[in-house]
Amino acid sequence: MTVLLAAVMMPGLVAVPAGAGLLPPLLPPPSPPLKVIVQQLDPNDPLPAVLVSLLGGTVTEQLPIVTGFAATIPSSILTQIAGLPGVRAISGNHPVVPSAAGSSAPRPSVHREAVGADVVNAEGITGEGSTVAVIDTGIADLPVLSAQVRPVAGPSGSTSRCVNLSAEAGCGDGYGHGTFVAGLVNSVAPGADLLSVKVAGRDGTSNVSTLLAALQWVIVNRAAYDIEVVNISMRSDSSLSYRLDPLNLAVEQLWANGITVVVSAGNQGAGSRTIAKPGDDPWVITVGASDDQGTADTADDAVAPFSSRGPTLADGVAKPDVVAPGQSVHSLRSPGSEADLRYPNFVDDAQRLGSGTSFSAPQVAGAAALLRQADPTATNDRIKFALMETAGALGPADGAGRGTIDVAAALAAPPG
After folding, report:
1. Exposed, middle or buried, 410 (CB in 10 Å: 0-12/13-18/19+)?
2. Which residues, in sequence order, are CB contacts of 11 under 8 Å at separation 6+?
3. Three-state secondary structure call for residue 211
4. CA within 20 to 30 Å of 359's CA: 63, 79, 285, 367, which one?
5. What 3-state class would DSSP assign to 136?
């Protein structure tokens, strides 16, 4: 008589005849697939994408801004792909997250006065004629911004309040970060238009390939929407040199096309070499956060303790370039957003408090729009030079770059 193992008593298991031996050990589960960015040497070469597919990967998105594509691959073929003919570099499709630092203590709102925007706005310099593209979590449909947010052309003559590259429907700001950022651009440059490029939904998280697609859209549509300035208050972690990293290559493409790119430094604290990507790029304007102490006088300002410091991790580039108020600043709420729920630091029905280099960068983006209005021939190099050369020093403070921006002084700076 054939004797069966106890599997007969356990539904779902296969009965094994006695004498057949023990079952072989279970193999470990396969490693999860990797999401990567593949850069090519030649934009017209189809071979890298073909070989990736033949090796079991899937090309998910073309990314012409970095001469490459996004792909999902088995982890076992990573080394093979890196050595394929025509491949320049391969890197992770890392998460991209907002550069906000969380809770804030109440204090007066003085950032406009601290950077000198109140003075130049009163003289008629408001940023009129420029569009600042806010690459973020969307911008809430608020009456106070209705005249500033530019409609974006859609199919069949339709328009939308944003370019939506996120996985979430609609142009609203479920996370609450992009609205706060937009409010700060508008507070410094009330005459500038805003263009919402939405790359993340209610959880606030995006990835490198989506941010690359957003930067590609900006380049392609720059002339149609008069985009002079781009604000990126988001960060990604990577140890690659700026010479190879796809985010760095993309922001350099914008800069080469004449667009002033302003990026937050990150909130990784007072340790050196904590500047986030793409703020580690030598071309862009990288902005750290100062603490204005709730006073318009910058003599008592200091670098906020959370603000990331240079030099940059991979290349030793001196960063940030400048700082602007980023501790407990006031800006616009997106009612019902995650920020409202997690950090209910409300000033009133319309505004809330926020801290982070995320909120320092848009003040510099607004300042760039002011300089552009004052001199429509000013290049992005000239704007960066003026803001850095006229910044107010914060004494021996580490992490301040050239110091805190002074818009009035930058406008008065001689050509350089």
Report:
1. buried
2. none
3. helix
4. 63
5. strand
Task: For residue 253, give the nearest of 21, 68, 88 by alpha carbon.
Answer: 68
Enzyme catalytic residues:
136, 177, 358
- Beta-ladder partners of 34: 73
Across 244-269, average pLDDT: 97
Pairing of strands 68-73, 58-63: antiparallel
Contact between 115 and 298 under an 8 Å Cβ cutoff? The reply is no
Give the separation between CA 229 and CA 372, rounded to whole angstroms: 9
d(CA 280, CA 263): 9
Q: Is the pLDDT reported for residue 237 higher than 50?
A: yes
CB 109 within 8 A of CB 354: no
Burial of 160 (0-12, 13-18, 19+ CB in 10 A): middle
Per residue in 294-320, pLDDT tens? 999 999 999 999 999 999 999 999 999
Instruction: Determine phi and psi for 36, rounding to 5 degrees.
Output: -135, 165
pTM of the model: 0.91
Residue 271 has what pLDDT?
Answer: 86
Residues 6+ apart with CB under 8 A from 212: 37, 63, 65, 66, 246, 247, 250
Mean pLDDT of 220-244: 96
- Give the whole-angstrom CA distance, residue 134 versus residue 131: 9
